[in-house]
């Protein structure tokens, strides 16, 4: 049975582990980051469209955000984000973009500039979405819903998860997680167990954070979604 290391934050890590177990893999859950709510206030301002960049922007949002945006058209970055937004009562009209670059293009294609775009996002992020929207003549308003913080598991905690056997595969979903993993791979408790592992990444940028040697052998999803990442793992 192939042993697969899952480093994404909870609750996503446990959700991924359940999927892996159902596929016949042995999941090893070791979150290296965590998401925490920021409790933002939302003020009455014009809203033509809402952009949501992560399920965490729904998971950590206060009810006041949903109340303020009820009935507004929502574009979500991906299917899981769209499902979370619908469950929160938001009107999702598109959840097929896949990443911030494509999400900006979808918004620009659907709404004439200048549109007032409320963006539910994390504090730690690239500025791709807002930069692309401004360049297209739109007016993004960022509401930072959550922050992403590093976790520092001890060597003993790492050993308790990984055990004595080598890891066959590592799933990487974010630049933050990749940066943390790169740091921990320098520690004997983890690095020696990952020497022969294949790294499965949502993007080339994520793979590149681990270094060129890893990037040469990493497998990159052809679309930034967990479904495509797990498809790669099966092949």
From TrEMBL:
Keyword Flavoprotein: no
Keywords, alphabetical: Lyase
Keyword Lyase: yes
InterPro entries, sorted: 4pyrrol_syn_uPrphyn_synt_sf (IPR036108), 4pyrrol_synth_uPrphyn_synth (IPR003754)
EC class (word): lyase
Tetrapyrrole biosynthesis uroporphyrinogen III synthase domain mapped to chain residues: 15-229
The protein's name: Uroporphyrinogen-III synthase
One Pfam family it belongs to: HEM4
EC number(s) reported in the record: 4.2.1.75
GO molecular function: uroporphyrinogen-III synthase activity
């Amino acid at each position: 049975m192939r042993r697969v290391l899952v480093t994404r934050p909870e609750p996503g890590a446990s959700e991924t582990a359940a999927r892996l177990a159902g596929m016949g893999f042995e999941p090893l859950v070791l979150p290296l980051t965590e998401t925490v709510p920021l409790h933002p206030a939302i003020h009455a301002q014009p809203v033509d469209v809402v952009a949501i960049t992560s399920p965490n922007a729904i998971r950590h949002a206060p009810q006041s955000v949903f109340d303020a945006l009820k009935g507004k058209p929502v574009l979500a970055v991906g299917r899981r984000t769209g499902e979370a937004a619908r469950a929160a009562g938001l009107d999702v009209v598109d959840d097929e973009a896949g990443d911030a670059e494509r999400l900006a293009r979808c918004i620009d294609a659907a709404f004439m500039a200048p549109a007032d775009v409320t963006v539910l996002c994390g504090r730690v992020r690239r500025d791709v979405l807002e930069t692309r929207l401004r360049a297209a003549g739109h007016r993004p308003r960022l509401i930072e819903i959550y922050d992403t913080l590093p976790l520092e598991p001890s060597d003993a905690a790492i050993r308790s998860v990984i055990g004595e056997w080598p890891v066959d595969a590592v799933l990487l979903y974010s630049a933050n997680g990749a940066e943390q993993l790169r740091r921990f791979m320098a520690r004997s408790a983890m690095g020696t167990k990952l020497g022969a592992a294949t790294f499965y990444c949502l993007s080339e940028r994520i793979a590149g954070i681990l270094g060129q040697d890893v990037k040469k052998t990493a497998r990159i999803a052809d679309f930034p979604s967990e479904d495509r990442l797990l498809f790669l793992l099966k092949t």
